[in-house]
Specification:
Elements (H helix, E strand, L loop, with lengths): L2 H5 L7 H12 L7 H14 L3 E5 L5 H9 L4 E6 L2 H13 L6 E5 L2 H4 L7 E6 L6 H11 E10 L18 H16 L3 E6 L5 E6 L5
Parallel strand pairs: 1-2, 1-4, 2-3, 4-5
Antiparallel strand pairs: 5-7, 6-7
Bound molecules: S-adenosylmethionine (SAM).
S-adenosylmethionine binds next to helix 4 and strand 2.
Amino acid sequence: MTDYLASLVRLRTDGRILQMREERKARRDPVCADETLAYLLFTVQSLAPARILEIGTAEGLTGAALLLEAENARLTAIEADEERFRLAEKNFAAFGLSERVRCILGDAADVLPALTQEYDLIFLDGPKAQYVRYLPDLKRLLRAGGVLAADDVLLYGWVDGSVPVPPKRRSIVARIRDYLEAVSGDEELVTSVLPVGEGLAVSVKRRKKG
Ligand SMILES: C[S@@+](CC[C@H](N)C(=O)[O-])C[C@H]1O[C@@H](n2cnc3c(N)ncnc32)[C@H](O)[C@@H]1O
């Protein structure tokens, strides 16, 4: 994103979330890019989701922002790191959101197969190399017309080839390409790969015709 486009991003969410995001960024703790959160907030406004799933919730700041935007929504948040999971629970409580959140500590590869309810919006922001492995469960869990947004799919320009891939990163780049090719080629999904943040692959599950 150019500096000009970045200057147009306005994150309209709770001021405490904005402040906490800046603190996390200063510490290089994981948090999605401003333009990614702006896009997710846009999606929440247009989709009015009742059920949201976030894979890799970290400290819950994006999940909290989405719930504050979608006042009637409930969130299932999966996080593998226990310290971050505890912080997420604390943050959801601080925003008065605990009753609307099911926060699950665990590896998404174990948790996803056990989920049964359908979701209107899925934010995939866990381990990038696993995205393609999660895809069958994500498709099962996404309602027709629902949106699956996968973050960090362009990774510093490595994935689209605009920046040479460091040898140590070839494997993760190959796995992300597997994911992009899988969602792009899937006839049940309509997918756009957007240069938002580190790249956001947005897939909508087709409604059945007839
Ligand atoms: C980029 S961060 C998520 C940032 C968060 N979505 C946000 O916007 O604030 C990725 C998170 O995925 C978690 N994670 C990594 N491997 C995981 C796994 N196998 N299952 C669930 N979460 C995982 C990491 O601990 C980390 O907190």
